[in-house]
Amino acid sequence: MKKFFQVLGIVTLLLVGLYYIEECSGTKDQSEAVEDVQDDLEMEKSVHLKFKGVPIDGTLKEFISRMERKGFEHRSSYDSKERLVGDFAGIKQCMVYVETLDNRDLVSRIIVEFPKQERWEELFGNYKNLKSMLMEKYGNFSSCVERFQNSYIRTDEDRMRAVHMGE
Question: Which of 105, 124, 133, 142 is deepest in the core (most CB within 10 A)?
Answer without folding.
Answer: 124
